[in-house]
Amino acid sequence: MSGRILWAAMFWVMLAGGVGAAPASNAREADTQGLIDHGPAAPIFNNRFTFASYDKDGRPLLMTYPAETFSTKYLLLIDPLTGALEQMDLPGPPRGDAPFAAIFSSRNRLYTLFGRTFLEFDPAERRFTFWQHVSDNLAMRMTEDDNGIIWAGVYPKAHLYSFNPDTRELIDHGAMNKESWPQYPRGLACDDAGWVYAGIGATASQLVARNPDTGQFTLLLDESERRQAWPEVFRGSNGRVYARPTSDSPWLELYRGERREIEKPPVARVPMLEGAQGIQRVALAKGPRITQFNITEKFLMLEEPDTGKPRRVEFDYHSDGAYVKSIIAGPDGRTIYGSTGLPLRVISLDTVTGTLSHQPGQHMGGHLNALALQRGHIIAAQYSGGYLYDYDTAKPIGGTGDQQNPRRLNKRSSAINRPHALLALADGRRVIMVGTPDYGLTGGGMLIYDLESEEHHLLTHEQLIRHHSTVALAQLPDGLVVGGTTIVAGTGGQAVAKEAELYLFDPDRREVVWHAPFSPSVPAVRDLVVASDGLVHGLTNRSGKALYFVFDPARREVVHQRELEGVGEVAGNQAPRAMLVGSDGMIYCLFRDAIGRITPGSREFKKLVSLPTRATTGLAELNGRLYFSTLTNIWSWPIPPLEP
């Protein structure tokens, strides 16, 4: 286990309003072919958990599990009085995940389980005192029983784990409930008789009770009571557990494995230092009060106990950066814009000066999966919630009400939770957003929004293609829209359809006019563009390779397809944008390991350049260069001249 001490000194230039700018000198040329790495778009952390305690010398200590690119590699130990920070490597093998649950126990220990590893940290000794590899991914909820035993409900198979701090034994008690879809045990509590209760979501909710004498699990909900929901579960001050299977169902009192329907819990919940992602438990027993902790902006605020005066304390750390989720060429002809995820930062690369900047998205959260240009603004589609935003890049980010920038355009709907494609229609007014539905649901919707009139229509999967979600869109010269689907359900849901489809959609009549399964069968169509030949060119993945195909909308059939060798799978994140019709009329494609070019008409494919690191998000063109990302960094490459 290693650590390094970083003192409060800012190594990024922090501009007004929380903007961080990386100077042009950070860009480096990767090879003789002109690839340039412009550096990390936003070298910052997102808070997963923060708890306050004291070390053995009585010094206050903030313990923070941070995340970058959805991975936690460190534990940050911060002295809130001075900003001194220790960045500790985690014990055990590298873990490609971040914690979703943690608990600070009555014995002054911090516990979490993620990346298939259970961890115990002792703040008094400032070291990890126990870690063990497990077979399951990560805890969704943790709790402590009356004997000090730590319990964890684990995703995705709903296993229940326990850790005894006295015997140092970690036990896998097996699956509490068995389903064909991933399960989220986001509710967990123990009664004073030693029974453990779990609330499991989200495809079909379930409550489970574990008998402390036999170790057996009992399902407490009949099939008729199960819904797409996140059951609420908590320990009451009377030693009993209270649960609500859905937001509109009756409350249940749970005790010794039995359930009793009640109007509402008669007692308050027992406070416990635990929680789900993003929780901050930073109250100190003595001394200054911590009124604000902002890991992304690298500062905290104290309130002095004697005077009540605020004091700002800055700290610093090293981060490889937040995950770049989307990029687009802006309307000014010189700037590349984009979004990172968790934390959401609006990023911009000035291609003239080379300055790479980032700033908070203010009222936006999650990440912007898909971007499109319409009416001179960037329209953005956000996970989670499927919100659309109108971003005027000529104005500063901020404001309230109608003056918000970016401005939210729609209300939340369960039909689209995770946007996968955003299309600006040729009429210059409308955009279409599509994606997968809310957690546990199957079949995504479509939102058609008119930016001029603000009229909008939401279609469900029953009105499009039942049990499918649309993940790729392109518009034909005659105004029809071609869509490509996926059979994948909302996160944690169960797929029903067997193969992806292509379809034609009339945006004026708002109806599907034709659809058919893609052949040969694939689970998802990754991306689509319409080229100068009037045909639809697309990409998907099959058997670990990229598959290129051409769809003729007049004949309504796929007229060409072939596997592409030596380029890897199609790149792209939740919204792929792996294909782009360039200003020269050629189709440029982003793969994990290469950039390629397709010539419309001849359908000739040529691999143009191998990439030194795997591409993740693309693809934008500006002033003769293609821009894309590799997890955290923005890259560019000059488009080569066409061969005579």
Biggest pleated sheet? 6 strands, mixed
* Strand numbers in spatial order across the main sheet: 1-9-8-7-6-27
Shape: globular
Q: Whole-number radius of gyration?
A: 26 Å
Number of strands: 57
Mean pLDDT: 92
Strand content: over 45%
Class based on secondary structure composition and strand pairing:
mainly beta
Q: What is the number of helical segments per DSSP (H or I, 4+ residues)?
A: 0
Distance between the termini: 59 Å
Instruction: Tell me the helix content.
Output: under 10%
In the predicted model, the low-confidence regions spanning at least 5 consecutive residues are 1-25
Oligomer: single chain
List the helices and strands and how they pair.
Elements: E1 3-6, E2 13-15, E3 19-22, E4 28-29, E5 36-40, E6 46-54, E7 60-67, E8 74-78, E9 85-89, E10 101-104, E11 110-114, E12 117-122, E13 127-133, E14 138-144, E15 150-155, E16 159-164, E17 169-175, E18 184-190, E19 196-201, E20 206-210, E21 217-219, E22 232-235, E23 241-244, E24 251-255, E25 258-262, E26 274-276, E27 279-281, E28 289-294, E29 299-303, E30 310-314, E31 323-329, E32 335-341, E33 345-350, E34 356-360, E35 367-374, E36 377-383, E37 387-391, E38 407-408, E39 418-424, E40 430-436, E41 446-450, E42 456-459, E43 469-475, E44 481-486, E45 501-506, E46 511-517, E47 527-530, E48 536-542, E49 545-552, E50 557-564, E51 579-581, E52 587-590, E53 594-599, E54 604-610, E55 617-622, E56 625-630, E57 633-638
Parallel strand pairs: 6-27
Antiparallel strand pairs: 1-9, 2-3, 3-34, 4-5, 5-57, 6-7, 7-8, 8-9, 10-11, 10-26, 11-12, 12-13, 14-15, 15-16, 16-17, 18-19, 19-20, 20-21, 22-23, 23-24, 24-25, 28-29, 29-30, 31-32, 32-33, 33-34, 35-36, 36-37, 37-38, 39-40, 40-41, 41-42, 43-44, 44-45, 45-46, 47-48, 48-49, 49-50, 51-52, 52-53, ...
